[in-house]
C-alpha cells in the first residue's frame, strides 16, 4: 500500500534545528535545515549522515524546502549544501532568499570571529549555497520534476514565511513551518485552502497555550516599558533583527508619538536599517493596512528609533534598547545584559520563546545566578519579564489551521513532548484523525489510499451519463468497461473498443432452450398467449410480437413449434446470448411454470 | 468550444471562450481611439479651442454647429470624450463565469462589464496588474472628471446625420454604443471582484477547467494564460515581449503542446526597433533642451516610462543634462513610482538581485532623491511654483484629448523651440495632433512597442508548435499601408484562423478522453489479465458518480441477500431490476480439449461431428447439441437450467471476458 514516511532529524519533540525528511511516492524531500541555539557542539546541526551513509545527498534528495529565514530553520543550510555536499534545488520565497544570507553571515561572524571556531562554513560557502536557491511565489505551483510539485502558502510568522504543500499525484503533505493565525501590526494571518492533504506537519510551539487578546499583551508591554523608563531604568529587549523587532518597533514608535515621550529608543547592530529596508521593498508580504497606506506613509520609517552604539550602554538615564540575538545566547544582547543585570531598576523583556540552554531560557525559568564564561558568576537583579510576542499559532490557531486544511493525518513537530501529548489528544478527539509526534530519528509511516486516475473514453462516459440522466437517476447505475493497462497508462474503454484495439474478434456464446408447454391450441394462439403473459409480467421491458410469429423480449428471441409427436404440446425455442444471460435464464424459468389460465 | 470575439482591436482584445461547461472572458480592453474624434479637454480655459467655428453642412444647414467644431479641415465632436466598448450583444455577458486579465492595459473596460451586464463571476489578475490598472483608471477618471463639460453631444450619432459627416466621423463604427467614462465608485466595485493570482498558480474552475497565468514579459505582472482540462489545452497569448526590459522574462516553455493558441497583442509598429527608438528619443530630447526648448512626452503613468527614466538616468550626465528638471505629472505619479519599487518578485533577474542587497530595483528612486526627477499630481499647486524652463515633462494622456498634456500642448505648441515626442504606440500621432494644428512645435515620433514582432512570432510558433493558431484578422494580411510587406503577417501551418469583431468562431478540437478516478476499494477488486506482452486488461463493473464535474468509479453495492425464506415467492417479484451488462467474450474453443473437459465432468456419451465451419458436439442422452465455430458457440438444450449452467461455465473456461 502506498505510504508516506516522515523522520525528523531535528524539531522532533523539540524546538530548534528544524529538519524533517519526508518520503512520498518515491520522492524524498527535506523540510528546513536549521541549527539548534541550545548547543555549540555537533548537536547544533542535524545529523545528515542519517539520510545516506556514503551516497551523495543530491542523489537521494529531490529537493530541499526552507520555510522562513529564522536560523533554527535555515542555519545549517551552508553546512549541508557546501560542506556535506548537496547540489539539488533549494526552494524558498523571495524575502527569505533575500534575508536568509544576511542572517547566516551574521551567525557565521558570531561563531567564527567572536568565538573563534574553525571548521565552520565561510562567507563564500553562504554565497555558493544561495546560488542553489530557487525563489518561489506564493501559490505558484512549482514543478520540481515531472511528478513532484510544491506550492507555497502565506504563513505570517515573519516576512516571507511560508507553508508548503508537497504533492505527488494525488498524495500530498502540507508543512507549516512556523505560522501565525492572527494578523498582527505588520503581517497578515496564515492561510491555506481546503487542500485535504494526507498529512499535515504542523509546528506546536504553543501547543497548550491559549493566548489572551493581543491588545492586553501590548498594553502590558507598554505599561512595563513606560514604568521602567519613568523611574529612570533601562529596558533591554532581546530580539532577532527581523520579525518581532519590527512589530515591537511599530508598537513603541506609535506609543512614544502618542505619549510624547523623550527617552531614547535604540536598535542595535547595523542590521536595523537594512532590515527595515527589506520590509519596505517586500511590502507586498506585509498586512493589508500597511500595504494600502505605504505610498502616503511607510510604516518602516521610524522617527523615534535610532541606531545603537556600544558606548550608549553606559550612558546615564533611561533608555530602551532592542538588541540581537533574541535568546541572549551570544552577541550584543548578551553584552548589554551583563552590563545592566546588576541594577534592579532595569528590566529585560523577553518577547519570544527561548530554547533550552540559552541564557534567556535560564533567567525565564527563574535562575538568578548565572555562570558565565571563565567561571564568572553573574547575579541578576534586574527585573525579568516574559511576554509572548512570538508570532506562533497558539492551540486555538493550530486547531483552526487543521480545520482549514482538513488533513487525514496530523504530525506535530517544533514543540515540547509534554505539550505535544496534550495537543495530540485534543486533535484526535476533535477531528478523529490520527496524530503523530515522532522524536528525532524516529520514523512515522502513514498509509495512504489514493484513488487511481485513469482515462475514460468519452464515448463510454457519455453512454453512461446518458443512462444516468434517465428519470430514475437516483438508482446507482452500473457501468461496464474494460481497463487497458499498457506502459503505465490506464485507459477505460467500452469492451467493444478494447476488443477492436487489441485486434481480437468477439466470440458469441448463444443459448437456445427448448421449453415445453401444454397447450392444445394452434401455434399462433399459443404464441399470443405467451406474448400476453410476458407483456403482463415484464412491464419494464420491451416485449414485441413480430409479424413472422416470433416474440422478442429485448434481444431475446422466442419461437414456437409444434411438438413432433404430441399435438397438445408446443415447444418454445428461447434463444439468447451470453450478454442477456440473466434475462434469458429468468424467461426460461418463468415459461417452465406454464401459462396462466387463458382469460379469453 | 466557441470563441466569441467582442473587440476588433488586436491589442485591446476582448474574447469570450466557451470551454467545456465554463464561460471565460479573456481580457476586456477598451478601445480609446474613439476619443480622437473629440475636442481636447483643456484644464485652463483655451481661447483657441473655444473660438473654433461650428461645422456647417454642405447645404448650409447649421443644426450641428453646437456639437461639431472644425479645426484645420478636421471636424471634432465638442463633448465629453467617449469610448468604444466591447460588443455587449453577441452573448449574454451575465453568463460569463470568470474574466482573465493579461495586463493592465487590457482591463480598462472592466467596470463596463462587471457593473452593467449582470456579471456575477470572478476576475483573475496578478497583483501588479490590479495595482497599476487601478492607477491607470484613476488617472483616466480624474482627468475627465476635473474638466466638467456642460454639453453632451448626441445628435451627430443619429444614423441619418452621421451619413452626412466627413470622414473619419462618417465611418466611425458602433457610435451608438460609445460610452462616457466610468466613475471611481464603479472602478472600486469592479476591482473588488478581482482575485489575485501568481504566475504558475493553478486555479480550478468548477472542477472542469484549470487556468494558469504565465509571465509574458511585457509589463509588470503581465501574463499569458493557459486554459486546460486534462485533455485539451488552449494558450492565450496577449501582449508578450521577448526583450529584456524590466519585467520577468516571458515563459515560453509552458505554452508547448497547445491544441489552440490564441494570439493577440503583437507590436503595433512592426517596423520600428524599440532600442533604436529609445536612442532617438534620447538624442531628440537632448537636442531640444540644449537649444533652450522644452520637451513634452505624452505617456501612460506606468510601463515604458520606467524604462525611459532608466535610460535617462544613464544618459543625462554624459549628455550634460544634469541641471535640466524632469517633471512627471499625473494624479498617480507618486503611487506609480512607489509601486514600481515593491514588485521585486515580478521583475527581471537583474532587478530582483538589487532588491536582495537591499536596494530599490529602479534607479528613478535615485533621480527623485537627487531632485532630478520631480513628480506632481497636477499642474496646479506646487508645480506652478517649482516650474522652471527649459524642462522635460512626462504626462498623460497619450491621446492628447484629456489630462495635463492638453495644457502643455496649448502652452508650448506655438514655439518651434519645443518638441513633443510620441513614445506610446496606441494612437496615431497625426490624429492626436489634429485639433492642435497649425502647430509650430517640433513633433518626433519614436513609438516604443516592445511586444512581439512577426519574426519573433514565427520563431515562437515553431518553438511551441500549437496545433491551431487563432488571431485577429489584421494579423493574417500585411498592414493596409504596406501591402507589399508580406513579412508583416503571421505565417504558419496550418494557416491561422482569423476573427473579427462580433464574430463567433468554432475552435477545432475534439476530445476523446476524460479523467475518471477509480476508488482504491474498486482498484483492489480488479483482476488484470495479461493479454499480450505488456498489455493487461481488467473488466470493470462499477458505479459511476459524478459531482462538480469530477467522475469517480466505486465498487457496486453488494446485492441484497436473496431472501432465504422457504415461502414461495411470486415469480413477478423476481423480475431482474436493472440489466447488469455482461462482458463480451473472446477466444476460441479447441474441440478436443472441450470434449475431454466434458468427459471429465461426467458426460459419457459425447459425439463430435465436423461441419463446414466447425464442429457439433452432441450429448445424446441430454438431447443437447453444441455448435462450435471459430468465433461463436451455440448451446441448444432442453429447459434444464442446472445442465445449461454447467455447460455454460465449461465453455467460459476457454474464453476471455472483456
TrEMBL record, chain A:
Cofactors (names): Zn(2+)
Pfam families per the UniProt record, alphabetical: Beta-Casp, IntS11_C, Lactamase_B_6, RMMBL
Organism: Heliornis fulica
A single Gene Ontology CC term: nucleus
Domain (Metallo-beta-lactamase) ranges: 16-233
Subcellular locations according to the entry: Cytoplasm; Nucleus
Domain Beta-Casp: 245-363
Highest rank taxon of the organism: Eukaryota
PANTHER family tied to this protein: CLEAVAGE AND POLYADENYLATION SPECIFICITY FACTOR FAMILY MEMBER, INTEGRATOR COMPLEX SUBUNIT 11
Protein name: Integrator complex subunit 11
Automatic annotation (TrEMBL), chain B:
Organism: Heliornis fulica
Gene3D superfamilies membership: 3.40.50.10890, Ribonuclease Z/Hydroxyacylglutathione hydrolase-like
UniProt superkingdom: Eukaryota
GO CC annotations on file: cytosol; INTAC complex; integrator complex
UniProt cross-references to InterPro entries, sorted A to Z: Beta_Casp (IPR022712), Integrator_9su (IPR027074), IntS9-like_C (IPR048660), Metallo-B-lactamas (IPR001279), RibonucZ/Hydroxyglut_hydro (IPR036866)
GO BP term (any one): regulation of cellular response to growth factor stimulus
Family the entry assigns: Belongs to the metallo-beta-lactamase superfamily. RNA-metabolizing metallo-beta-lactamase-like family. INTS9 subfamily.
SUPFAM superfamilies: Metallo-hydrolase/oxidoreductase
Gene: Ints9
Protein name stated in the entry: Integrator complex subunit 9
Keywords of this entry: Cytoplasm, Nucleus
Claim: Nucleus is one of the keywords in the record: yes
Span of domain Beta-Casp: 305-433
Coiled-coil segments: none
Localization (cell): Cytoplasm; Nucleus
Region (Disordered): 549-573
Principal location: cytoplasm
Amino acid at each position: 500500500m502506498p505510504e508516506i514516511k516522515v523522520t525528523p532529524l531535528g524539531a522532533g519533540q523539540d524546538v530548534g534545528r528544524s529538519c524533517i525528511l519526508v518520503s512520498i511516492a518515491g520522492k524524498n524531500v527535506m523540510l528546513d535545515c536549521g541549527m539548534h541555539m541550545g548547543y555549540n557542539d555537533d548537536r547544533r546541526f542535524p545529523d545528515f549522515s542519517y539520510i545516506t551513509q556514503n551516497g551523495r545527498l543530491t542523489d537521494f534528495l529531490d529537493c530541499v524546502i526552507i520555510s522562513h529565514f529564522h536560523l533554527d530553520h535555515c542555519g545549517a543550510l551552508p553546512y549541508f549544501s557546501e560542506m556535506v555536499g548537496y547540489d539539488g534545488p533549494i526552494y524558498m520565497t523571495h524575502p527569505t532568499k533575500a534575508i536568509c544570507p544576511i542572517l547566516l553571515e551574521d551567525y557565521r561572524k558570531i561563531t567564527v570571529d567572536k568565538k573563534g571556531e574553525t571548521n565552520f562554513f565561510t562567507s563564500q560557502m553562504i554565497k555558493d549555497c544561495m546560488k542553489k536557491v530557487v525563489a518561489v511565489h506564493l501559490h505558484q505551483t512549482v514543478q520540481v520534476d515531472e511528478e513532484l510539485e510544491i506550492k507555497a502558502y502565506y504563513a505570517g510568522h515573519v516576512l516571507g514565511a511560508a507553508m508548503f504543500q508537497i504533492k505527488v499525484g494525488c498524495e500530498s503533505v502540507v508543512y507549516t513551518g512556523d505560522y501565525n493565525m492572527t494578523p498582527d501590526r505588520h503581517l497578515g494571518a496564515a492561510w491555506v485552502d481546503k487542500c485535504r492533504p494526507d498529512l499535515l506537519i504542523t509546528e506546536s510551539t504553543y501547543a497548550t497555550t491559549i493566548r489572551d487578546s493581543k491588545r492586553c499583551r501590548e498594553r502590558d508591554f507598554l505599561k512595563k516599558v513606560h514604568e521602567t523608563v519613568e523611574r529612570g531604568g533601562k529596558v533591554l529587549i532581546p530580539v532577532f533583527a527581523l520579525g518581532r523587532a519590527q512589530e515591537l518597533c511599530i508598537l513603541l514608535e506609535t506609543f512614544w508619538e502618542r505619549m510624547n515621550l523623550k527617552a531614547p529608543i535604540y536598535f542595535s547592530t547595523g542590521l536595523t536599517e537594512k532590515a527595515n529596508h527589506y520590509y519596505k521593498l517586500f511590502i507586498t508580504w506585509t498586512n493589508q493596512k500597511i500595504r494600502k497606506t505605504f505610498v502616503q506613509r511607510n510604516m518602516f520609517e521610524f522617527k523615534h528609533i535610532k541606531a545603537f552604539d556600544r558606548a550608549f550602554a553606559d550612558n546615564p538615564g533611561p533608555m530602551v534598547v532592542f538588541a540581537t540575538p533574541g535568546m541572549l545566547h551570544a552577541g550584543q544582547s548578551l553584552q548589554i545584559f551583563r552590563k545592566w543585570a546588576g541594577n534592579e531598576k532595569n528590566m529585560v523583556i523577553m518577547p519570544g520563546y527561548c530554547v533550552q540552554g540559552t541564557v534567556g531560557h535560564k533567567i525565564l525559568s527563574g535562575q538568578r545566578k548565572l555562570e558565565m564564561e571563565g567561571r564568572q558568576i553573574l547575579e541578576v537583579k534586574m527585573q525579568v519579564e516574559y511576554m509572548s510576542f512570538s508570532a506562533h499559532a497558539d492551540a486555538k490557531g493550530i486547531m483552526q489551521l487543521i480545520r482549514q486544511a482538513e488533513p487525514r493525518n496530523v504530525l506535530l513537530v517544533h514543540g515540547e513532548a509534554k505539550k505535544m501529548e496534550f495537543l495530540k489528544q485534543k486533535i484526535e478527539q476533535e477531528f478523529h484523525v490520527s496524530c503523530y509526534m515522532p522524536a528525532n530519528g524516529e520514523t512515522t509511516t502513514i498509509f495512504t489510499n489514493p484513488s487511481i486516475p485513469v482515462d475514460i473514453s468519452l464515448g463510454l462516459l457519455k453512454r453512461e451519463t446518458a443512462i444516468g440522466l434517465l428519470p430514475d437517476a437516483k438508482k446507482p447505475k452500473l457501468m461496464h468497461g474494460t481497463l487497458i493497462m499498457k506502459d503505465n497508462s490506464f485507459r477505460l474503454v467500452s469492451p467493444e473498443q478494447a476488443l477492436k484495439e487489441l485486434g481480437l474478434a468477439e466470440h458469441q456464446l448463444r443459448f437456445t432452450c427448448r421449453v415445453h408447454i401444454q397447450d392444445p391450441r394452434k401455434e399462433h394462439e399459443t404464441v399470443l398467449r405467451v406474448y400476453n403473459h410476458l407483456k403482463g409480467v415484464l412491464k419494464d421491458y420491451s416485449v414485441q410480437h413480430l409479424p413472422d410469429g416470433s416474440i422478442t423480449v429485448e434481444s431475446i428471441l422466442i419461437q414456437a413449434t409444434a411438438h413432433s409427436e404430441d399435438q397438445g404440446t408446443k415447444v418454445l425455442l428461447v434463444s439468447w446470448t451470453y450478454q442477456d444471460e440473466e434475462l434469458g435464464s429468468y424467461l426460461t424459468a418463468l415459461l417452465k411454470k406454464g401459462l396462466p389460465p387463458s382469460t379469453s | 468550444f466557441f470563441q466569441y470575439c467582442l473587440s476588433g482591436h488586436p491589442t485591446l482584445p476582448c474574447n469570450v471562450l466557451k470551454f467545456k461547461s465554463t464561460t471565460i472572458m479573456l481580457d476586456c480592453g477598451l478601445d480609446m481611439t474613439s476619443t480622437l474624434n473629440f475636442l481636447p479637454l483643456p484644464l485652463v480655459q483655451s481661447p483657441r479651442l473655444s473660438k473654433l467655428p461650428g461645422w456647417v453642412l454642405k447645404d448650409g444647414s447649421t443644426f450641428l454647429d453646437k456639437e461639431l467644431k472644425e479645426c484645420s479641415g478636421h471636424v471634432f465632436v465638442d463633448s465629453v470624450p467617449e469610448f468604444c466598448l466591447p460588443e455587449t450583444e453577441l452573448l449574454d455577458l451575465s453568463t460569463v463565469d470568470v474574466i482573465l486579465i493579461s495586463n493592465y492595459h487590457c482591463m480598462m473596460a472592466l467596470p463596463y462589464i462587471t457593473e452593467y451586464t449582470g456579471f456575477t463571476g470572478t476576475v483573475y489578475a496578478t497583483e501588479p496588474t490590479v495595482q497599476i490598472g487601478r492607477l491607470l483608471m484613476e488617472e483616466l477618471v480624474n482627468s475627465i472628471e476635473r474638466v466638467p463639460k456642460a454639453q453632451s453631444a448626441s445628435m451627430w450619432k443619429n444614423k441619418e446625420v452621421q451619413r452626412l459627416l466627413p470622414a473619419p466621423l462618417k465611418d466611425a463604427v458602433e457610435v451608438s454604443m460609445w460610452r462616457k467614462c466610468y466613475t471611481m465608485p464603479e472602478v472600486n466595485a469592479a476591482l473588488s471582484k478581482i482575485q489575485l493570482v501568481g504566475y504558475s498558480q493553478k486555479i480550478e474552475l468548477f472542477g472542469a477547467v484549470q487556468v494558469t497565468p504565465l509571465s509574458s514579459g511585457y509589463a509588470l505582472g503581465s501574463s499569458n494564460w493557459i486554459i486546460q482540462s486534462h485533455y485539451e489545452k488552449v494558450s492565450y497569448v496577449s501582449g508578450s515581449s521577448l526583450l529584456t526590459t524590466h519585467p520577468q522574462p516571458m515563459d515560453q516553455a509552458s505554452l508547448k503542446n497547445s491544441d489552440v493558441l490564441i494570439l493577440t497583442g503583437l507590436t503595433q509598429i512592426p517596423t520600428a526597433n524599440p532600442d533604436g527608438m529609445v536612442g532617438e528619443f534620447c538624442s531628440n530630447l537632448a537636442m531640444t533642451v540644449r537649444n533652450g526648448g522644452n520637451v513634452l512626452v505624452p505617456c501612460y503613468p506606468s510601463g515604458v516610462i520606467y524604462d525611459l527614466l532608466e535610460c535617462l538616468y544613464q544618459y543625462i550626465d554624459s549628455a550634460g543634462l544634469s541641471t535640466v528638471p524632469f517633471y512627471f505629472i499625473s494624479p498617480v505619479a507618486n503611487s506609480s513610482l512607489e509601486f514600481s519599487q515593491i514588485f521585486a518578485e515580478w521583475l527581471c533577474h537583474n532587478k530582483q538581485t538589487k532588491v536582495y542587497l537591499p536596494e530599490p530595483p529602479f534607479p528613478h528612486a535615485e533621480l527623485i532623491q537627487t531632485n532630478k526627477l520631480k513628480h506632481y499630481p497636477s499642474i496646479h499647486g506646487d508645480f506652478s511654483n517649482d516650474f522652471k524652463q527649459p524642462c522635460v515633462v512626462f504626462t498623460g494622456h497619450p491621446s492628447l484629448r484629456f489630462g495635463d498634456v492638453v495644457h502643455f500642448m496649448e502652452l508650448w505648441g506655438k514655439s518651434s523651440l519645443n518638441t513633443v515626442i510620441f513614445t506610446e504606440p496606441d494612437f496615431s500621432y497625426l490624429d492626436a495632433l489634429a485639433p492642435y494644428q497649425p502647430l509650430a512645435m517640433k513633433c518626433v515620433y519614436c513609438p516604443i512597442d516592445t511586444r512581439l514582432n512577426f519574426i519573433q512570432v514565427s520563431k515562437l510558433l515553431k518553438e511551441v508548435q500549437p496545433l491551431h493558431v487563432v488571431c485577429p484578422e489584421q494579423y493574417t494580411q500585411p498592414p493596409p499601408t504596406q501591402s507589399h510587406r508580406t513579412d508583416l503577417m503571421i505565417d504558419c501551418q496550418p494557416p491561422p484562423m482569423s476573427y473579427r469583431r462580433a464574430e463567433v468562431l468554432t475552435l477545432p478540437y475534439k476530445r476523446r478522453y476524460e479523467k475518471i478516478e477509480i476508488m482504491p476499494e474498486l482498484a483492489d477488486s480488479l483482476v488484470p489479465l495479461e493479454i499480450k506482452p505488456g498489455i493487461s486488461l481488467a473488466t470493470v463493473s462499477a458505479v459511476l458518480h459524478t459531482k462538480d464535474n469530477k467522475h469517480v468509479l466505486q465498487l457496486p453495492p453488494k446485492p441484497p441477500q436473496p431472501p432465504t425464506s422457504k415461502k414461495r415467492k411470486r415469480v413477478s417479484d423476481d423480475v431482474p431490476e436493472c440489466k447488469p451488462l455482461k462482458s463480451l467474450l473472446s477466444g476460441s474453443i479447441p474441440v478436443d480439449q472441450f470434449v475431454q473437459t466434458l468427459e471429465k465432468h461426467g458426460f459419457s456419451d459425447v459425439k463430435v461431428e465436423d461441419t463446414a465451419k466447425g464442429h457439433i458436439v452432441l450429448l445424446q442422452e441430454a438431447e443437447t447439441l453444441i455448435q462450435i465455430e471459430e468465433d461463436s458457440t451455440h448451446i441448444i438444450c432442453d429447459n434444464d437450467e442446472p445442465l445449461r449452467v454447467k455447460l455454460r461455465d465449461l465453455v467460459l473456461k476457454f474464453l476471455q471476458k472483456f
